[in-house]
Amino acid sequence: MGVSERPRLVIYTADVLGPAMAGSAIRAYRFAQALAPYAEVRLISETQADLSSDSFEILRAGGDELLRHIEWSDVLLLQSPLLTWLPEILAMDTLVVSDLYNPFILEELQRDLFLDAPADVESTSFTVRAIGEMVRYADFMICSSEKQRDLWMGELMAQGRLNPITYRDDPSLRRLIDVVPFGVDDHAPALTARGIKGVVEGISETDKVLLWGGGIYDWFDPVTLIRAVGVLAPTHPDLKLFFLAKQHANPAVGMMKMADDAIAEAERSGLLGSSVFFNEKWVTHEDRANYFLDADVGVSTHLEHLETRYSFRTRLLDYLWAGLPIINTAGDAFESVITFNQLGAVVAPGDVEELAREIEALVYDEQRLAETAARSAAVADDFRWAKAVEPLVEFVLASRGAADDPRRAARNQRDAPVGGDAAHIEMLTRRIQELESSSSWKLTAPLRKLAGWKGSGR
Predict the structure, then answer these.
(1) Cβ pair 291, 283 in contact under 8 A
(2) What pTM was computed for the model?
(3) Between these two residues, 206 and 416, which has the higher pLDDT value?
(4) Residue 314 and residue 245: Cα distance in Å, rounded?
(5) Do 373 and 397 fall into the same domain?
């Protein structure tokens, strides 16, 4: 890359890039928008690419074609285990950024609880190895919260990336892994048409609407929420719960068991079509404001499990964007944001009665509802995409590889890219030897032994 040239960036997502997008695709698209002023960007999906932009390319590519785009790039940002699927990337000079905002092994384990034929240990081991390679071979990593960053610190240690070289380069390790949360759109939402009130049969213009702002997945708990609405329905017939979607934006994902359970619970309790409503189609990304601005409170409920602890619910950012008060289950990374800023209420997992009390106390106190909505809109400024992506922009502009050069061994054997712990230890040993030879830095005796040091023994 010449001095005057802009860095060339490929952003890869395995998700659908189109009018109807889920969180990972939205994140990739917003990254492309934010990085376009600084880099020449190609946003690539292997699944579907039906968007267009004047400031960057949006393409569909896979296999050899995708490899050619990656060879063109200076920096590759990926959200999925592409290094496992295409190990040829390991031998390229392209810098690799692993987006770890979605610890999908936890989603996989939680969904597996609901499958008739659960995945075997070998399948899960593959996922664990794939995530390990995203960490082992990355020049830079990003995640959504400090809590997530602590999770990935353990993986860095397991993969040998927490070592004397990376620590000496930056004891905070921010140069290796930093927080880039899911962002809030920089432009304010605008209501162009009613999405819910007076439009959905059974919901009037004066009703109070709780909005579930996304799909229903197996790591959520819509059943407790439906039961809480059932507790309030006899005294508050104007309270309506609207699920924005039942399944993922990508049709290949299919509808999950928890969505089936939610519909069954609404039917069993007699609430379906009177107090509880399910939108049949995924709302396009551009039209979602008409639904979020047509609601009174944003809701998200989940059970207590590992996915909850390390999750960062993208729908909660849309609630902030629309200035919605939030009622959320405790235990996720966003709990502290809600409680510290008084954005609504946080309830215990699975507690129907507490959830019903909090819904009633917030929705039917007009002054509290208005004040909470104002605080929510104000907090949104802290999560604007332009601010969220700053560490990523800094890395792309610097185009500086990781201090421990994680793919050096593979690049030295271009005809047969290598991976695995042995290659990484070999590379790390070489780098430690180089540092000892070229500086006054001294390696401790235990580390010399671990690295197989055969030098002067200084």
Answers:
(1) yes
(2) 0.74
(3) 206
(4) 14
(5) no
